[in-house]
Amino acid sequence: MHYKNSQIYFDSISAQELAKEYGTPLYVYEAGRIRENFQRLDRTFKKHWPRFQIYYAVKSNSNPAIVKLLMQEGAFCDCASLNEILLAKKLGAKGKAILFSGNYLNDDDLKAGIESGAFINLDDVSLLDRLLKFGKPDVLSFRINPDFGKSNVHESDVMAGKQAKFGIPWERAKEAYAKAKEAGIKKFGVHMMTGSCVTEPEYFEAITKKLLDCVGPMAHDLHIKFEFIDIGGGFGIPYLPDEKPLDIEKTAEKVCDVFRKKTKEFGLGDVQLVVEPGRYLVGDAGFIIGRVHAIKESYKKFVGTDVGMSTLARPVLYGAYHGISVDKTRSFDKLRMTGFDKLRMTGHGDIKTGHGEPVEPEKVTITGQACENADAWAKDRELPKLEIGDLIVVENAGAYGFCMSYPYNGRLRAAEVLVDGKTDKLIRRRETFEDWLLGVENLDTAR
Ligand code: LLP
Fold first, then answer.
1. How many CA atoms does the CB half-sphere of 321 hold within 13 Å?
2. Cα(111)–Cα(134) distance, integer angstroms
3. Which sequence positions are flagged as catalytic?
4. Of 48, 173, 371, 437, which is most buried, counting CB atoms within 10 Å of its CB?
5. What is the pLDDT of residues 366-380, one digit of tens each?
6. Any idea what the Cα angle at residue 289 is, between residues 287 and 291, rounded to 5°?
7. Looking at ligand 1, which residue's alpha carbon is closest to its atom 2?
């Protein structure tokens, strides 16, 4: 996303054009940015450890066009449920190109997992006997809880440690692998996912070291060979204006250095290093275009838009911050007369004149249209003065955005558009009233 003459563009298509063609609220993804994110991560890690594979965390954005785009770049799929497996398969993934990492699975999930031929990653040893009722996986992996985790977003994004519902405590991992070996399984992997949105390279080094210190002695004592070691996703992106991006070069170097040292120390061989990012690949490539529909001067000033808590759940769920940029082109002619064309807007409310002098912004609270006060989701933001009809663009909405949206208050799900250079294409149409009622049964007998 960038500004050209105070207008917001995604590649070469303006927000105004997209809003006019597809309506608002509208999720927009930049294909080029997704490819860049994938290639940067892939290239950087492979430089340090060539046997490296990215499994894309489908849960972070499961629009089939996005999953397909990443598969075309070389991603395999990290799937959390049977439906995600079905999606990956529909797009052509099979066998080891799918890693099934569910948690608290029922027998139907386990059966479907085995039948799908995906790599199975069990969240607990208690699932092993139940899985074996349906067949023996070629390669089996367990999710390990290394007893610490981290997130820059919220404590609910911390996925390891004593409060986490995930994985097997690392001290008990050996029992799980011993049991699997006894059951006749010959090939193994190991997995962890300790937290989402971390931007400190040292953290990834620390979890990798902890996992290998758990895996190494186990491989030796049980005489088992690991086919892959999956250190999870969690690579963060900056959401706040002054937050620094993750230094991926430093991260890859530190992770691979400790990986090399430890695999050598424990004689683990040229094992495959796996990561399963979601946010890092798609987070900053996605935006929501919304329109200002109503403005209220109450005890404070509220700007009502069609982007609400049901369009983007993250601010309300996690107190997450999303940058907001403003496109006033619709009222631009009027503003031009008042000298507004001398303003340059750079997002996050950072407004400067054409001469680079700061302009006094206005403090407003951006709200959606849901009947909940939580829906006033961007509080006291400094933004250029907004008027009815203006567009807002919510940044960093590519991960955990649309896939976590819901049709609350009858405000139905947005459309999704993929912009690729000079072209844009609708990759999911806007939800309709008929879609909303899809699956409703026995309406005529309801009293
Ligand atoms: N692998 C597993 C097993 C996961 O559970 C997740 C995310 C990932 C990989 C990808 O993590 P990432 O690279 O995106 O951090 N809804 C929250 C994030 C929840 C993450 C769930 N699991 C949010 O919007 O912040």
1. 14
2. 6
3. 371
4. 173
5. 999 999 999 999 999
6. 155
7. 193
Domains and CATH numbers, the chain: 2-28+283-436 (2.40.37.10), 31-280 (3.20.20.10)
Q: In whole angstroms, what is the distance from residue 152 CA to residue 194 CA? A: 12
Percentage of the chain beyond pLDDT 70 is 93
Flag whether pLDDT at 338 surpasses 80: no
- Summarize the confidence of residues 6-14 as an average pLDDT: 93
Q: Which amino acid is at 347?
A: G
- Does the beta carbon of 53 sit less than 6 angstroms from any atom of ligand 1? no
At residue 391, does pLDDT exceed 60? yes
Structure confidence at residue 447 as a pLDDT band (50, 70, 90):
low
407-422 pLDDT tens trace: 999 999 999 999 999 9
Q: Of all protein residues, whose CA lies closest to atom 23 belonging to ligand 1?
A: 400
DSSP state letter for 354: T
Q: Is the pLDDT of residue 104 over 80?
A: yes
C-alpha 130 – ligand 1 centre gap (Å): 26
| pLDDT for residue 330 | 64
Tell me the best of 38, 56, 59 to mutate to test the pocket of ligand 1, counting ligand atoms within 8 Å of each CB and taking the most: 59
According to the model, what pLDDT value does residue 235 have? 98
For 40, what's the count of Cα atoms within 13 Å in the CB-facing half-sphere? 17
Rg (CA), the chain: 24
Mean pLDDT of 69-82: 97
Which atom of ligand 1 is closest in space to residue 234's alpha carbon? 15
Cα(40) to ligand 1 centroid in Å equals: 20
- Tell me the DSSP string of 286-316: EEEEEEEEEEEESSSEEEEES--TTT--HHH
Atom of ligand 1 nearest to the CA of 320: 25
Contact 378, 365 (CB under 8 A): yes
The helix/strand/coil state of 208 is helix
Confidence of residue 335 (pLDDT cuts 50, 70, 90): very low
Q: Indicate if ligand 1 lies below 6 Å from the C-beta of 277.
A: yes
